[in-house]
Design goal:
With 567 residues, this protein is α+β, with helices and mostly antiparallel strands. The protein has three domains: 242 residues, 4-Layer Sandwich (Phosphatase 2c, domain 1), CATH 3.60.40.10; 83 residues, Phosphorylase Kinase, domain 1; 186 residues, Orthogonal Bundle (Transferase(Phosphotransferase), domain 1). It has 19 helices and 22 strands. Strand 6 and strand 7 form a beta hairpin. It is globular. It starts with 5 loop residues before the first strand and ends with a helix.
Amino acid sequence: MTRTLKVSISQYSDQGRKPVNQDFHGAMIPEGSALGLKGIAIALADGISSSAVGRSASEAAIASFLSDYYCTPESWSPKTAAQRVIDATNSWLHAQGRRGQYAHDKDKGYVCTFDAIVFKSRAAHIFHIGDARVYRVSGNALEQLTDDHRVVVSSEESYLGRALGVNPQVEIDYRTVPLEIGDIFVATTDGVYEHVAARFISDTILANFDTAAKTIVEAAYNNGSGDNLTVQIMRIDALPDGDLQEVLGQAAALPIPPLLEPRSVFDGYDILRELHASSRSHVYLARDRDTGIAVALKIPSIDLREDADYLRRFLLEDWIARRLNSAHVLKAVVPPRDKKFVYTVTEFVEGQTLAQWMADNPNPDLETVRGIVEQIAAGLRAFHRLEMVHQDLRPENVMIDKAGTAKIIDFGSTKIAGVAENDGVLGTVQYTAPEYLLAEPASPRADLYSLGAIAYRMLAGKLPYGARMAQARTGAQQRKIPYTSATGTNRAVPNWVDAALRKALHPDPGKRYGELSEFVFDLRNPNPAFAQAGPPPLIERNPLVFWQTLTAVLACIVLGLLLYPVR
């Protein structure tokens, strides 16, 4: 490309006659390769007036879109990337509303309208939910590019037919518009367009672009608008050269790289050695030739290069890593150059897996186990805050670096709420929550179960249910499997710690802890409820001793009957 995309933006928002401005808007103009790969994004949201958390909803919608969109894989089209981000945001807002005091009143939940425009190459990609509007200036007139999602009951009554956060899934209007230099787009909330004429908007923009947004808002206010007022105006100043594929936003997928060899150079990286190989991917230690930083470079499996679902999952892992921000989750690294192949780059963790650490430390003290569990829980909370469930937490998917920091790795099974084509892959059976084996939906309590199994394994040297849970095929069968107390093999484990483990590992997710923090707290602080319950029965603490004792008692009774028969 000989030219780059350039856009001028004029935007203004005011609370108007309302005490709080529930509108929220923003724009992102990236630098470097991201400008060509992802484009320029603007977004506008309007919180519903009946909700006290409307502003929080609109603010969260804009913030998440403008950050998460740029974390999506470079090979995704703007349509795929934006729709997946919006789906995930909708699910998060809906979940927040369900947790609040107005869980059964959608009009008081985390609900807002949403519009976004992504300018990429020579096309505008428009995403619309609700009754805000997107226009294009055509001559001296305005061309409306979106349809209002408002249901009219009568001349005096209407309601929103579609909005973010109302339902678990949301329908998104999408259209693409080819761009020409000088094109002007306008996004505005109903508090503006209902109180100023379309001709006034276009004339004001053409007269003075820089002050147009504020002038239009002030005119709507002076004309009696009682709502919040927001206007965004975008003018296309320069366009990159591009072919038809780019105009339509349908860039071809990047090629799959070949297997890499040590000492070779690949896409700006020196390949040092292979770290891991499996049927699903290959991971290499590499050094960025520009920055000198050591990274882990992951390429797709050669055998699965024709599997479209696998490649989507592979790219989704990269997006997940970029969204997460925790010291206890593997960090994604954004390459400083445009990619020429499909691969992902993350920080290189110099250390060992938790599985290897456990083999090297078969009898860790309770305080060490607590420290590791607390770090893993912190990493899991980063997933859960974004409505994601890891689903494959096990010792092989946790790294312990040389400083003792635990980091969750491998997001290949992660379930993202609201994202289509995202059916998580079942994790390793030994640490998998029992509900997965019954094909029940994922929840954060499933990750809690896996964390409890890891803690139990570190303390007891085995799993709480052995292989029996994996063989159960119904909930009733699962509930009949007795929990084996960790105190039976490790007397250093207090009864109240074992009680915390038993609750975290309950086959019924509804009887586990509701939050990770509760489990972590109970590992350090005796829960009075556990103390009142007393120690677990012998059959749970040590089944072998129980049955040996019972057998001995029965043998004594039989012997007594033989020696002293009843007459």
